[in-house]
Amino acid sequence: MSRSSQVIDSTFESAGEKAGLEIWCIENGRLVLVPKSSHGKFYTGSAYVVLNTVLLKSGPPQHDIHYWLGNEANKVDSVLASDKALELDAALGSCAVQYREVQGQETEIFLSYFRPCIIPVEGIYSSQSRKSNRETYKISLLTCKGDHVVHVKEVAFSRSSLNHNDVFILDTASKIFQFSGCNSSIQERAKALEVVQYIKEHKHGGKSEVATIEDGKFVGDPDVGEFWSFFGGYAPIPRDSPSAVQQQPDTPSPKLLWITLQGKLSQMGTNSLDKDMLEKDKCYMLDCGNEVFVWMGRNTSITERRISISASEDFLRSQGRSIGTHVTFLTEGLETAVFRSYFDSWPQTTETKLYDEGREKVAAIFKQHGHDVKELPEEDFEPYINCRGILKVWRVDEDEVCLLPPSEHTKLFTGDCYIVQYTYPGNERDENLFYAWLGRGSAMEDRVHAISHMSAIVDSSRGEPVMAQVIQDKETVQFFLILQTLIVFKGGLSTRYKKFIVENGIVDETYDEKKVALFRVQGTSPTNMQAIQVDQASRSLNSSYCYILQTGTSVFTWIGNLSSSSDHDLLDRMIELINPTWQPISVREGSEPDIFWNALGGKTEYPREKEIKGCIEDPHLFTCTFTEGYLKVKEIYNFTQDDLTTEDVFVLDCQREIFVWIGCHSNVKSKHQALSLGVKFLETDVLVEGLSLETPIYVVTEGYEPPLFTRFFTWDPSKAKMHGNSFERKLAILKGRTSSVEVPVRNSWKGYSGETTPDGLRSKSVISNGLRRSASPASNISGTKLNSSGGNRRASSITPISRKLFPGSTPYRGGSGSPTVKSISPSENGKAIQVDGSASHSENAKAIQVSGSDSDVISLIFSFERLQVNSKDPAKDIDAAKREAYLSEEEFQEKFGMTKQAFYKLAKWRQNKLKLALNLF
């Protein structure tokens, strides 16, 4: 319904054009705009209309309309507010969700607009400025309920109002007291402190004293005595009798009722609900007991909608329902997740991006006819972590994990599972990010072992690394940016994969240059490109991509008609990576020779339209409780960093990936447990958005949140370093003691005792920020077999990853490019000897200082033969990426023809080339 076709209130003329809140109040039978300075101040005798507008990154704005009714508002104003809310929806094109809000029973989404709370004011709103001549401060007693949003209600100033279950605020002229019932939760007490802060700032000008009172603790505390003096002295609060405890009513089965044009309700004759039951030219009421929905078809008029709203409210009154029953009004196509969850089936739709899809298709048609047109820009993704870190990859093989050489890091097989460790410099320390990559054709036992091995590595690591699970074809963009280039081959190398295909008589598809193979090339840049081996059949082609076809005798590159020039550049680069000796034959879509189709088993139909990515909505935050196999979730609206309470576990749902955040004081004690919770969340699909069970899952720990996670918040790092429970932290902030609650960077050397490390020793190195970095924790896992692909267990086998981003960052290198290494190896008697202030051991080697660069190197000396990659007697516990650093100055000069100082001044690529020629890389 367009604005031009409706006569609307002049105050709605520009409503919804800007993001944020707009509030109107009914005054003397007309609608008046409430100034922003008065937002959040609601009068008990008035009725309001509230509009919240969110401007999304793509697509139309999102609107929510609420009409708020004060407990003392008259019926005429209440009905007018309801009508004006419907009129506002029509003015916005019938694209808003409407909520009825009753004082004291507001929805959480409404309260989230007015953090930390709303405290209704007695009286009636007036647009004329009024000055208060109150001489004496009125003492008030408020009760606070809620652990994430707070319902604040004024109660009688009497001892009988207090109880053991709630949190109370006593507001006096000189001091604000918070009384916490012994049965109240820590989260409720913490949120009530935010209300105390609000009262202090808005009613006392920030000058009032604050005191916190614990229920049952009163000996020797002057604040406690002062608190009880307002109630005539201390006396015990009676315990609630069993009958006083409200039993949770059984949730009734939802009932769908058709609302006739005469305002009558007729129940539908079925217990099973289906979307097809909702007709476009009718209105319905879905009665779910404690909440009611009114659904209005797209083809209904504003008069029909007004009748439906009135009929639903009359129905609730006639049923004697609680005044706090939440009522939500929905227009077809804007159904909330809660509403859709009551239906047995609700088809997924992709209507929100129709205009973008149309533009894409028009561009594709023009390109097919040879016209050069601009396409919609590719989705841009900024890497939120430093991508110039260190990469390690292990392949899972039964109960072992095999460390792969750097040349194999970016070559994965669909029948295998891998563990990827990425180490990058953070603000105060090195950070680790672990991925378990699960191939689509991998055995379930290998998948379980991959998660188990990764969890063991993470649990033994310093700090609290981020852990993630990704499944082939569902990788995150960040995963691709870390690897830069990725080639995924069909088949597998693991024992279980080989055993599976033999037992099931399946042809081994493991990649072989002599066989026919088809690769799809994808990505956005040279630092984000992949070649994925697909079925060698013409149905695997797609006009949006470029492909490499290997026939055994020749190689073809196939260029789709909808591919771009950047795709063609990636195609050339991928040819060089897979096999630089290939001399490919380039063919364009539509001009393929017969030999091309014959290699693919004949020509068949394949997709020829531009692939359109679905619209990604803003993320949603949920608090999660997982007990006895049942997951209970609750959405946190308009979330902030302060909502991440340390006692809880949260899931941040970003659609293409989810993050499980573990609070330090939560009952989830392991990342493996948190990963299981994430899987359960995907199964539940709270928002009914069709989340895939293969959606990537990240697990992050409080205090160790990576930028990948914090980018969704306005993040204050100092809050992440505070200790204590939620209440203690809020109280410290309230009393200005934030500096005393910060803790130093936590060091957790959990797996590094002599009993759990190979040979009973530790291997350490110093990185560029001066912090000590341990050798790979994977080599220190007790009970896990770790083999490198060459059969030798090494403390480190690493590949530095270069990135254009963060150009000033050169991780793990000194100012002149020289490595800074401190190594420890065992001595015969097991005692450590000091070398320049660092612990060291002697293993047929002497410790010397290598000077001549800006950053001196302290290193052990080994012979050239022991340092070579294929040595029969390799040096143990060295940094394999810095093998040359362990040579003596004399032998270094002999082999490289220059000093170490001169070598480290060379460009990195030249260093690697020289090392490669000497088999040291």
UniProtKB/TrEMBL annotation:
Keywords: Actin capping, Repeat
Gene3D superfamilies membership: Severin, Villin headpiece domain
GO terms assigned for molecular function: actin filament binding
UniProt GO BP: actin filament capping; actin filament organization
InterPro entries: ADF-H/Gelsolin-like_dom_sf, Gelsolin-like_dom, Villin/Gelsolin, Villin_headpiece, Villin_headpiece_dom_sf
Name used for this protein in its record: HP domain-containing protein
Native source organism of the sequence: Acer negundo
Entry annotated with the keyword Acyltransferase: no
Compositional bias ranges of the Polar residues kind: 776-800, 818-828
Annotated stretches, region: Disordered: 772-840
Keyword Repeat: yes
Residue span, HP domain: 856-921
